[in-house]
Structures are given as C-alpha cells and as structure tokens.
Task: inverse folding
C-alpha cells in the first residue's frame, strides 16, 4: 500500500496527524462537499477534499440553478395520487423504466408511507427549517468566496396556463402561506410586464421573489473548491472505496489506487454514490437516483430575467450565464441505464409553448442523478455506527438550495457548536 503524502499538508500517514489542527477528509466535491470543505477550512480545520473526478462534474454540474425556498414539500397524497397519471403519460414529468420497476418498489413504498398526513407535516417542518436559513447562508457563503455576483436578484415565476392548473397547485400555495413565504399572485398583463417573453396563454403566475438563481452552478462548485484550497485545503483526485478505523481512533480513507488518508473526521458527501459507501460501513440507506435532464440553449434568441417553473408540467426554464437552461423530469431507471434524451426534448417543446420566441440553437443535453431519499429530506448526520464519520447526502431536488446551510450545520456538529436548528429529522438512523 502506498502511504506517502499525495499533496503537501493534506495526505497524512497514521503517524503524521498534525497535533495542532484537526484533520478532515471531505469525500465528494459536488456542491455539498465543496461547500463543507470551504466552511471547515474557514473554521480552522485542515481539510482534504477528495473526488473521483473534477469538482462540480457530478449532479451539481447541471441542475436548474434555483435556490428554491418554497420546494420543501414532501411526498404528500397530493403528489403520489398524481403519479399513476404521470407514469401513463409519455410526455409526463415522471418516467419509470419497466425493467427498473421491481428494484424501485421498496423505495416507492417508503415514499408513499412518508406521505401520510402526520409524517408529511414533520417532513415539511424539517425541510422548511433548512429553507428558513438557506438564502442568508447562501449569501454569506457567496460573499465569503468573493462571488456575490453568482446569484441573481430576480425571483422565480410559477406559471399556469389555466385556472385548473392553478387550482392543482393549491396545496403548495397553502403550504407557502402556512410557513410565511413571500409570494404574489399575478394575472394577465402584470405577468408580461415582469417577463415579456412569456406567452399570453399563461393566464396566472405566482411570483416568488426570494427564490433566487445561481448564474452557473458548476462555476459555483469550482469557486468553492478553489476558495477552500486558497485557505490551505488539499485536493486529491481518486475514488474512495472504503473507510476503516485506526487503532488511534482516527479514520483511514482507502482509495481505489491503494492510497490511504488518515483523518480525525470524514464527511461523506458523495451524492447518490453515498449509498454504496454507507452500505460498506454497515448502515444502509434507501438512497435512489431520481434522474433528471437539462438542455442548455446557447443561442435562445430571447432574453429572460426570471427563472420560470411550470408546476403542472414540473420543469423549469432558467436564464443562466451560458444561455437559457430548460430542465427537470424525474426518470426512475437506476444508476447504470443510458440516458434517454427524448425526455429533455419534450421539455424544450413545453418551454417553447410558454416562451414562444425561444429558439433552439446551439444546444447541449445533460443527465444527472438527484440523490433521493424516500422522505425527501437529506441526511445531515453523524454516523450511528462509526465515531468520526459524518454524512451529508440525499438532498434530492434541493442540493443547491441547501448547500450553504448543510455546510454550516455539518461544520457546527464537527466542531462541537450547537446547530441553529433541531438536527433530529436529518439523522441517518431514522431509517
Ligand atoms: C435536472 C436537475 C435539476 C435540479 N435542479 C435543482 C435546483 O434548481 N435547485 C436545487 O437546489 N437542486 C437542484 N437539483 C438537485 C441538485 O443538483 C443535487 O441535489 C445536488 O447537486 C447534489 O449535490 P451533491 O454534492 O450531493 O452530489 P454531486 O454533485 O453528485 O457530487 C458528488 C461528488 O462525489 C463524487 N464521488 C462519488 N463517489 C465517490 C467516491 N467513491 N470517491 C470519491 N468521489 C466520489 C462524484 O464524482 C461527485 O463529484 C437538480 C438536479 C437535477 C438532476
């Protein structure tokens, strides 16, 4: 086994742990891991960030860039009653590959169970406890990495083509009212006054002024990882295959290439791949991939100020630094199936209906894996089995939104500071 240091100040042999600084290995350089690495290094710990690829090239690369404070609703009956209809609609927002249906069943049963009214309220409370801090934490993170310009100041418009669609979103609107979220219902000319690109067929909209957008989610991760490194964090490129405890009580991170990294604390932030690592550590978690797609339109022929969500069709249109991004979809097909790019093309057609001037020139298509837990709230937790190991995973549809808050909470727990919110709902041993 190769136990020599990989890069200065980051890879330490078991006999080389720095006495002065606690060492932390953060595994996974998506938006969650990069934000955690930055926050921990900023608090004076010695961090090594590890990724099997380059920072930001996982799911965090291509999300719809929305800091979505309103989205914390769980899988209530209102959602799962729609699912059979969605599954039968070839252009619907959810697609299950028949070959994956049986594998998906245990997860789906847990998802339905999470929708029972008493549990649903707990889930919403937990999600909203994160949302309540998400925007302020995000702003503070961006300012700390000197990149406040990455966040737009315009909000998001939820759009409806008819009253029935608006009525279909009532549970969500009630939820926003219950939690005191700021929103404004608009109709007719008021919609076009805000966003002239929208079609007159959009008869109703809800303006969500606090749902900001990130101009380039990939650039955000790159900047977070670079900021952590500029403060002294190390970076290792390599796949982690397991973690063991050393005799001294530290953790030894084992990489595929035979390298070993010893650290006082290890944070697992490997997105959907955390399932495999957790299983090896003896604490299986029901983490599934909710695959999603985007089309990046570099020459859209139209400019937009607001990000737009169409709740009935469950997708978004987001102006980004590199043109307009159209995306969403939930495809249940596991980790290994090849992407099916017919899905994002349906969304582009829907987008052209909402934004008639949208041209589809110079495009790229992308698929990513949302790390999805059946109760829709993340795991932000110490391991229940191995001291010194922490999980930050399962952020599903909201990993970008909750990145800064997750980083703060993990850093609080690792440094023994009392977190600002109740962490019980996010524990790994709830399963
Ligand atoms: C279409 C789509 C739209 C979305 N829109 C939004 C949105 O608008 N707003 C929002 O908040 N969220 C959105 N999301 C969700 C969000 O993108 C995810 O929740 C988030 O990116 C998850 O981040 P992560 O860091 O946990 O995972 P990832 O970004 O996948 O990062 C995990 C990292 O771990 C590394 N890794 C994995 N295994 C290992 C290993 N064994 N060893 C070393 N490294 C490893 C990977 O290489 C990767 O870099 C969307 C997702 C999709 C698919």
Result:
């Amino acid at each position: 086994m190769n136990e020599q240091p990989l890069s200065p100040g980051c890879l330490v042999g078991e006999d080389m742990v720095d006495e002065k600084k606690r060492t932390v290995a953060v595994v996974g350089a998506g938006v969650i891991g990069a934000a955690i690495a930055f926050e921990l290094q900023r608090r004076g710990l010695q961090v090594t960030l590890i990724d099997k690829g380059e920072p930001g090239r996982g799911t965090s690369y291509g999300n719809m860039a929305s800091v979505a404070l309103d989205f914390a609703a769980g899988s209530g009956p209102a959602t799962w009653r729609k699912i059979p209809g969605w599954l039968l609609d070839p252009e619907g927002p959810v697609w299950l590959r028949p070959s994956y249906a049986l594998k998906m069943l245990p997860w789906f049963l847990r998802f339905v169970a999470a929708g029972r009214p008493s549990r649903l309220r707990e889930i919403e409370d937990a999600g909203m406890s994160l949302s309540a801090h998400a925007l302020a934490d995000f702003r503070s993170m961006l300012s700390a990495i000197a990149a406040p310009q990455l966040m737009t100041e315009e909000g998001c418009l939820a759009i409806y083509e008819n009253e029935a669609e608006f009525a279909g979103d009532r549970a969500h609107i009630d939820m926003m009212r219950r939690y005191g979220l700021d929103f404004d219902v608009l109709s007719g000319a008021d919609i076009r006054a805000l966003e002239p690109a929208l079609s007159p067929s959009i008869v109703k909209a809800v303006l969500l002024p606090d749902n900001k957008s990130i101009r380039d989610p990939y650039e955000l991760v790159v900047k977070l990882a670079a900021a952590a490194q500029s403060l002294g964090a190390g970076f290792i490129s390599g796949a982690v295959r397991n973690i063991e405890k050393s005799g001294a009580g530290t953790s030894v991170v084992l990489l595929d290439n035979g390298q070993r990294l010893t650290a006082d604390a290890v944070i697992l932030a490997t997105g959907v791949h955390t399932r495999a690592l957790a299983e090896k550590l003896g604490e299986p978690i029901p983490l599934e991939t909710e695959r999603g797609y985007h089309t990046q339109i570099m020459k859209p022929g139209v400019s937009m100020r607001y990000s737009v969500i169409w709740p009935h069709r469950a997708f978004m249109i987001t102006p980004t630094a590199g043109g307009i991004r159209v995306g969403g979809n939930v495809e249940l097909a596991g980790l290994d199936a090849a992407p099916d790019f017919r899905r994002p093309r349906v969304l582009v057609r829907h987008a052209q209906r909402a934004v008639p001037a949208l041209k589809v020139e110079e495009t790229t298509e992308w698929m990513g894996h949302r790390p999805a837990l059946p109760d829709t709230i993340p795991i932000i937790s110490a391991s229940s089995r191995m001291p010194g190991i922490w999980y930050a995973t399962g952020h599903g549809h909201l990993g970008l939104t909750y990145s800064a808050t997750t980083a703060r909470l993990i850093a609080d727990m690792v440094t023994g500071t009392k977190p600002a919110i109740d962490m019980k709902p996010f524990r790994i041993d709830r399963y």
